[in-house]
Amino acid sequence: MYDYAIIGGGIVGLSAGYALTRRQPGCSILVIEKESNWSAHQTGHNSGVIHSGIYYKPGSYKARFARAGNKSIVSFCQKHNIEHDICGKVIVAANDMERPLLNNLYQRGLDNELRVQKLSKEELKEKEPYVAGVEAIHVPAAGIVNFKKAAETFASLIEESGGDLRLNTEVQKITEKTESTFIETNRGTFEAKILINCAGLHSDRIAKMAGYHTDMKIIPFRGEYFKLKKEKRHLVNNLVYPVPNPDFPFLGVHFTRMINGEVEAGPNAVLGFKREGYRKTDFHAKDFMEVMKYSGFWKLARKYAKEGTNEMIRSLSKKKFVQSMQKLIPDITGEDVEPGPAGVRAQALKADGSLVDDFHVIQGKRSLHVCNAPSPAATASIPIGEEIAARILD
């Protein structure tokens, strides 16, 4: 029997395992992942940005974890020789109408105890010569990293501490008893004193399998990107973000210089017809029908009908997608970009149509379920892992 069994081999689950090995040396840990490699889904498909926490409500888990995670992930990368770059980012007001929103965001940065700086139009041009804007905020703590490499390092450290790592192992049934939990998989049955659910896109299903009602459902939103062609990468120095639309719960199209030197532009946010569907044509009947039958989705769809329609149009029209890029960098043309990767965000949605905006954890008798770990979960993975370990051990 294991002390702890973790379902999900993304960066959050692996960070939780790493935290447990440090807090309780000698404990026995099992990590179960249904894919053939670690970080196969959200972690392996994100933009690689180390966030600062400027967007998040002061005092929220997101704000606290992002701020702490920013420092801890940098320290972790330095210790384990993981390539990273604290390059900073600019958040740009494209016109005078966006100035009040930028001012509000600047104040939120101060409220979150971040080092932020207002930039004039001329100062913005010094940092990002091709970006058009009337004013900006510079956030020096933001950076880039290969989160997949960080997650793989967590896995190696767990294994070095005696942990049992199982890839290609899919959970089929969970039975929670008084003293332990039994996890039936395609590769046998495992017993653990405590179960930790970090299954990301399937976290609600794992919680339900263990007998817990979550009052929410994971809705997959696909984010699609374009890449700047190699000869056009000079248009972006580091990270360039728009002022967020207060009427839409996603950040909007931004530019990210990746750790490998590529520059991505995106994402949009469109409903995925499959929880792990990274292509427009991906479809899974069960995943799709769950969304269609969920009242919360239709309430959300009605609330954001205009914005959602625009997102779908951008998904189908390269011209429209490029026009959204041109708001920040007018020199970009359709000839300058090529299709890039896509990611799927596991967004928890309540039956009343409200998005679960913060990290959400359900505690069972012999289990703990991380049922919402949205961005900046990769940045905040170390403090999230520590929080999970603390809740279990305390």
TrEMBL record:
Keyword Glycosyltransferase (UniProt): no
Cofactor list: FAD
Keywords associated with the record: FAD, Flavoprotein, Oxidoreductase
SUPFAM superfamilies reported in the protein's UniProt record: FAD/NAD(P)-binding domain
A GO cellular-component term linked to this record: cytoplasm
GO molecular function per UniProt: (S)-2-hydroxyglutarate dehydrogenase activity
Name the UniProt record assigns to this protein: L-2-hydroxyglutarate oxidase
Family: Belongs to the L2HGDH family.
Gene3D superfamilies, sorted: D-Amino Acid Oxidase, subunit A, domain 2, FAD/NAD(P)-binding domain
Domain of life: Bacteria
Signal peptide region: none
Residue ranges of the TM segments: none
Short name of any one Pfam family annotated for the protein: DAO
InterPro entries: FAD-dep_OxRdtase, FAD/NAD-bd_sf
Annotated FAD dependent oxidoreductase domain residues: 3-391
